[in-house]
Amino acid sequence: MARRYDPDRRTRIIDAALTVIAADGIAGLSHRTVAAEADVPLGSTTYHFASLDELLVAALRRCNENFVQALRSSGLFAEEGDAGPGAGDAGPGAEGVGLAEELTRLLDRWFAGERGAIELEYELYLAALRRPALRPVAAEWTAEAVALLSRRTDPETARALVALMDGVCLQVLLTGGTFDAAYTRVMLERIVAGGDD
Fold it and tell me: Cβ distance 145 to 132 under 8 Å?
């Protein structure tokens, strides 16, 4: 019997893993549940991912890519030589206010979307506490976000911005609260202003 060519199978398996985790949490993840969700033979999941940790790494990396892509396409990063809209005679501190506003807008859009997607991303991110295989991938997200933000501010301030955004997201998710854009913008502005000293 000829083997069926299915170049997208690995991607479908990752998507299925994300669906299973979103519905049942990481505790509900198994090669069997993923195979059923992806509508592939059980052997396909173990062929592409020898362990559940390998599958979780791929799923977390997918989530990281989604958020970093949102950050890249947010308007925060103008092309070289283009200071962006409103630059020029905006006055001192305007760049930091613009950065804080844009990051707040990005988080606001993120929370305006489906909350389940954010919960999924953070469940995978926090799984690194107990699953050492996920730690390097969680660190990749932080490093990439800091590198992107360092194009607009110094690296120390970029790390502080990422930490604050993570903290705000965790508080909103864990308390079941709503995202407070005004508060977040003020806190982000304070961090940026502190980095300018």
Answer: no
Reduced to 3 states, what is the DSSP secondary structure of residue 40? coil
Q: Is 30 left (phi over 0), alpha (psi -120 to 50) or beta?
A: beta
- Contact status, residue 146 vs residue 159, Cβ threshold 8 Å: yes
- Cα distances from 16 to residues 130, 151, 182, in angstroms, run 22, 35, 37
191 contacts 164 by C-beta, under 8 angstroms: yes
The residue whose two tokens read 């300018």 is 196
Look up residue 15 and give its two tokens.
């998507």
The conformation of residue 150, written as its DSSP 8-state character, comes to: T
Element (H, E) at 54: helix 52-72
Q: What is the per-residue pLDDT across 9-61, written as a single tens digit (0 to 9) for each?
A: 999 999 999 999 999 999 999 999 999 999 999 999 999 999 999 999 999 99
